[in-house]
Specification:
The complex is a heterotrimer of chains A (about 325), B (about 280) and C (about 525). Chain B is mainly alpha-helical. In chain B, helix 4 crosses helix 5 and helix 8 runs antiparallel to helix 9. Chain B contains nine helices and no strands. The longest helix of chain C is centred in the C-terminal third of the chain and has 18 residues. Classes of the chains: A mainly alpha (about 325), B mainly alpha (about 280), C alpha+beta (about 525). Chains in contact: A-B, A-C, B-C. The interface between A and C is large, with 48 and 55 residues.
Chain lengths: ~325, ~280, ~525
């Protein structure tokens, strides 16, 4: 088991390395640099040169990469050029904010969508199935940022039930924090139900027509027992993989939801730092996200055997 | 051929209808719209939907309906081109790595996986900042973002196909590797590729909207559904229609694409056949 | 124990909503967190706003843009224009109680001039910008003498620059023994309280503050008594949230957008003040471009634009057109500066044919930064230009990219915004210069450059006035760029806030301000 984990992590290293180099190069190809942005229209050539020297931007690209990567290997992602805060704590804090939203939304979505998908598969082609499939397809067709805007419009502006923008840290006031989380979580939740339900239904359908299900029914087990004891455990596998993918993707796509609700999350950090050419933050962010993606997929693969005994961890 | 023997499912009808309408509107929008989507008109700023402006006007007095139509053209064009490029490049890479294997396969797939480790939007953000925030930048960025999926799917197909007898038979007959790939391997990849391409068309549409929403998409004043949605935020109070209609367009189109994709998948997936 | 988590309004409201902490705290909304508490290093406008409550320089900007005494109560200039003698105020104290002495000024100045400090304005005073401060001495405890290399009528203006933190005098205890910066110990009316990154910055009253003479604030000098116990600058990035905070009383004063003006005016608790600033919103031309180098073409463009339409529209009727780079409320703004462009489409068409324009494409670059009129200006201008037969394409760039193009001079026409320069010579210097060494400059007419140098060398007001009038005439004839308008700040404040006056430099001043019950 440990060997498996280590092997998988090692396999991820070349990927991460490629990510690190590509991000580094990509970000410097973009016209405009942090120094000119910081100085704005007050950038005399000397002031610009001074600032670029201080930021280490006057060195050659390989040298800059070497310095940055050397620090990364020691766990130091550098300092934000804009705010001069250390990057790793900054990225981590923002990640917690985004992560909280994503995990809660996906968890709730799975709670609702998996049973719904199973029901739809069980009663395939009935009215219930049609309604469920139709709803889920509709839900996943609505772009999250529009859904968010509509929810904001309805609950925030028209009804005034919930605060329009912002975020409160849990350290400050858990009650308040929860209130601010409701709308963004609702937005993500509705969207992910669509995605998860379809997958749950599809994999349940596949399992249901397998021989051992027929066998279980023949043995006299009730439908409910058949579904729970046999169908669920064996069909959850692909859904579980999908959850991993969803979590990973959401971290990227969440930028739009964060923009709509003005949440200081990881997505917004990335977008803002791109606009501000804050190289260390962009690099740190992307590297971090790639790493999270690898870890999430690893965990998904590790837990897969729990759901599908045919698959062993190796 | 087998799949013509069965009547298309309701999925396909509705989905096809919607997508067809989009393409129709996009086509028409390229040549004609009720009003000039770019003309500023200060006498009719933020006009609600009425007989003159069916869907209202925006803060510059531009007709929303015309902009939606022009936006359809742009969005459709961008999605088609980016998916097209991804399919072209991805198929080539997939066939090459699947057929040749070895070092080529390992290197290409390492880069492929690295690319896939980037959530799509982030990759697009980065590439667009380099390639430029215009339609060609987006097409390029999306093409790069989607190529890995195509490569994987095609490679998977090729890997499973190359062991089949008819490939050997072809080689024994004296056909070159290239010809074999062209004549025998590729056609069998078409099915999964079509399903994927349909989904990607939807992803591209969504991605373009999301990027425009974040301010990195097709820049104004050219209308796209995404940047129309983004601009509507500052006028939420006074002009709610600015935010409703572009959203409906995107959602409807995506719904159509998803339904169509489902129908195609059901059609092509042999395992599902018995269940319809 | 979780660390402080960044946030926009939410925690702000939660924190404010936890009851008005001290009844005597004024809450000010700012759009973004400050960059640093180290004066003049890593700054932006919000940072300056806060830091300039803590530190003070030898001289400072007055309300009308001229320079007045602050820590120095008198400045004497030697006849050769090279030696400035600053007589320090006797009663000024640092936050730690230590009296202000010339040795402190010396120490502070030397620290700024040390490259390791990373003072943003270092190149302005070390010779690389032409001006060099050759020597700074302290002949006695209350006199500081500075000698410069060439006569420069703008030396004091440069010292008073807000983006240089006024070269604010810091006490030695502001730095750690190893030289790294600790906390700003200055002479200003407020001390640094707490900086919660991403959330707020609080300043507390400096009880030992002795104000410069005066009955009311005069720019950054005049009366500066701290009448409230504390000031809290709260970070609220979103304009809609700022509006909500004002209307609910959670914030005492904030800048709002022109579109919110009506709603603010309708509220009984809030009053709104508009102030013309010295920010410049312009259209730049690249006179070295093969197409745009044609002067008649540029004149045609100027004639094709209805300035009143453009300005009225993008500023929601708040601002007036201004064709001069001297701001509307400057003491030097007189009839000569009022000479603007004439909107004449027929003349524009005529000029176009005289220019030999054959329909070549012109790329108009702009950006979509929020709160800036550049995009709207470009859109409306495009329509007007197209109406006279010009082929104009708008290219929307992201700000970082546009700034890069601006610095390199790589554009044909651009909608741009300049930050404020209160002295007219400095304002002209912003846009004019030799393009070979400074590609970002817009105007390189050698006569104009000579005039600007002359205006920078003399302090005689009448003489300068004449030079500026002459400069404006040339400016209108050459059309190196089109100056469109000075932006108008819309400031909303609670009626219970007394004594708060926004001014042309846009930065809020929380001294001489009290909160009525």
């Amino acid at each position: 088991m440990l060997g498996f984990i280590v092997k998988r992590l090692l396999m991820a290293v070349p990927t991460l390395l490629i990510v690190a180099v590509s991000v580094f190069v990509l970000v410097r190809l973009v016209p405009g640099d942090p120094a000119s942005l910081l100085l704005g229209d007050m950038a005399t050539p000397s002031a610009l040169a001074d600032l670029q020297r201080r930021l280490g931007l006057d060195r050659s690209l390989p040298a800059q990469f070497g310095i940055w990567f050397g620090h990364v290997l020691q766990g130091d992602l550098g300092q934000s050029i804009t705010s001069q805060q250390p990057v790793l704590p900054l990225v981590w804090d923002r990640f917690l904010v985004s992560g909280r939203l994503v995990v809660v939304a996906v968890f709730l979505a799975v709670l609702v969508a998996v049973p719904a998908g199973m029901v739809a598969a069980w009663r395939q082609n009935s009215l219930a199935d049609l309604v469920l499939v139709g709803t889920s397809t509709l839900l996943l067709s609505i772009p999250t940022f529009w859904l968010g805007l509509l929810i904001l419009l309805l609950f925030g502006l028209k009804l005034g039930w919930l605060p329009v923008v912002g975020h409160v840290s849990f350290a400050q006031s858990p009650g308040h924090a929860l209130m601010y989380m409701i709308m963004p979580v609702l937005t993500l939740f509705l969207h992910e139900i669509g995605v998860v339900m379809r997958m749950a239904r599809a994999s349940t359908l596949e399992v249901l027509r397998l021989d051992y299900i027929t066998h279980a029914r023949a043995k006299g087990l009730s439908e409910r027992e058949v579904m729970w004891r046999h169908a669920f455990r064996n069909s959850f596998g692909p859904t579980w993989t999908l959850i991993g993918l969803v979590l990973g993707n959401l971290l990227g796509g969440i930028a739009v939801v964060e923009t709509v609700f003005s949440i200081p999350g990881l997505g917004r950090l990335l977008v803002d730092s791109i606009f501000g050419r804050d190289y260390p933050v962009i690099q740190g962010c992307l590297l971090f996200v790639a790493f999270v993606y690898v870890v999430v997929n690893l965990v998904v693969d590790l837990l897969y055997p729990l759901f599908d005994p045919r698959v062993t961890a190796s | 051929m087998k799949f013509l023997e069965r009547r298309p499912a309701p999925n396909a009808w509705i989905g096809g209808l919607i997508v067809g309408s989009l393409l129709l509107v996009a086509g028409v929008g390229a040549f004609w719209t009720p009003y000039d989507p770019l003309a500023l008109n200060f006498t009719a700023q933020l006009a609600p939907p009425d007989a003159v402006y069916w869907l209202g006007t925006d803060e510059f007095g531009r007709d929303v309906l015309s902009r939606l139509m022009a936006g359809a053209t742009t969005s459709a064009w961008i999605s088609l081109l980016s998916v097209g490029c991804a399919v072209l490049v991805g198929t080539t890479l997939g066939v090459l790595t699947g057929y040749l294997r070895g070092a080529v396969d390992r290197v290409v797939m390492a880069f492929n996986d690295a690319l896939m480790a980037f959530p799509g939007i982030l990759l697009a953000l980065g590439l667009m900042a380099v390639l430029g925030a215009n339609r060609y930048g987006i097409i390029g960025a999306l093409a790069v973002a989607y190529t890995p999926s195509v490569t994987r799917v095609v490679r998977g197909s090729v890997l499973s196909l190359r062991e089949r007898e008819f490939i050997d038979a072809s080689r024994v007959m004296g056909n070159s590797g290239l010809f074999t790939m062209w004549r025998h391997v590729l056609p069998n990849c078409v099915a999964p590729l079509t399903v994927l391409a349909t989904s990607m068309f939807g992803w591209a549409l969504l991605a373009e909207s999301a990027l425009s929403f974040l301010g990195l998409g097709v820049p104004p004043p050219a209308p796209t559904w995404g940047n129309m949605l983004a601009a509507s935020r500052s006028h939420f109070d006074e002009a709610v229609w600015l935010g409703i209609f572009p959203g409906i367009c995107i959602s409807l189109t995506l719904l159509g694409i998803n339904l169509l994709g489902d129908a195609l998948r059901d059609r092509f997936d042999p395992r599902m056949r018995g269940l319809r | 124990m979780s660390r402080a988590i960044l946030l926009p309004l939410g925690a702000a409201l939660a924190v404010i909503g936890a009851g008005p902490a001290a009844a005597q705290t004024v809450n000010v909304a700012i759009n973004a967190d400050i960059r640093s508490i180290n004066p003049g290093v890593n700054r932006d406008d919000y940072t300056d706003s806060v830091v300039l409550h803590i530190v003070e320089g030898l001289v400072a900007l007055r309300e009308n843009g001229s320079i007045g005494p602050l820590l120095a109560e008198k400045v004497a200039l030697s006849p050769d224009g090279l030696t400035y003698t600053f007589s320090l105020r006797r009663n000024a104290k640092f936050h730690n109680g230590a009296p202000l002495t010339a040795a402190d000024v010396l120490w502070s100045w030397n620290r700024y001039m040390d490259p390791k400090t990373d003072w943003r304005c270092l190149s302005e005073f070390d010779g690389r910008g032409g001006l060099k401060v050759e020597a700074v001495t302290a002949p006695d405890a209350h006199t500081v003498v500075m000698r410069i290399n060439k006569p420069n009528a703008l030396f004091l203006d440069s010292l008073a620059r807000t983006d240089c933190a006024m070269a604010g005098v810091l006490h030695k205890t502001s730095v750690n023994p190893d030289g790294s910066f600790k906390s700003p110990v200055g002479t200003g009316p407020f001390k640094l309280g707490e900086w919660k990154r991403g959330e707020y910055v609080t300043l507390t009253r400096f009880d030992g503050y002795v104000s410069p003479p005066g009955s009311s604030p005069d720019g950054y000098t005049g009366a500066k008594r701290p009448l409230v116990e504390a000031v809290k600058f709260i970070v609220i990035p979103d304009p809609a949230t700022t509006k909500a905070a004002l209307l609910s009383g959670a914030v005492d004063t904030a800048e709002v957008q022109a579109t919110d003006l009506l709603e603010m005016q309708r509220s009984p608790k809030v009053e709104v003040k508009t102030t013309t600033t010295a920010n410049k919103h312009v259209f730049l031309f690249q006179t070295r471009d093969p197409l745009m180098g044609n002067a008649k073409l540029r004149q045609a463009i100027a004639a094709s634009l209805d300035m009143r339409q453009i300005v009225g529209n993008v500023s929601r009727g708040l601002a007036r057109p201004n064709a001069s780079v001297i701001h509307l409320t400057s003491a030097y703004y007189d009839d000569a500066q009022r000479q603007g462009y004439t909107y004449d489409p027929a003349a524009a068409k005529r000029l176009l044919s005289e220019a030999g324009y054959k329909g070549e494409k012109i790329k108009l670059i702009t950006n979509k930064r929020s709160g800036r009129p550049s995009f709207d200006m470009a859109l409306i201008a495009q329509q007007m230009m197209q109406a006279v037969g010009l082929n104009v394409d708008i290219e929307v760039l992201e700000w970082g990219t546009q700034i890069d193009r601006y610095n390199k001079g790589n554009y044909q026409m651009m909608a741009f915004s300049y930050s404020a320069r209160l002295d007219p010579a400095l304002s002209y210097e912003q846009i004019a210069g030799p393009k070979d060494t400074q590609p970002r400059k817009v105007w390189e007419n050698p006569e104009a450059l000579k005039l600007i140098d002359k205006a920078s060398a003399t302090s005689n007001v009448a003489e300068r006035g004449k030079i500026f009038d002459e400069l404006h005439k040339r400016f209108m004839a050459d059309v190196p760029m089109i100056m469109v308008f000075n932006s108008v700040d819309v400031n909303a404040q609670q009626k219970r806030l007394q004594g708060f006056t926004p001014w042309v430099a846009s930065k809020p001043r929380l001294w001489e301000v009290r909160v009525a019950k």
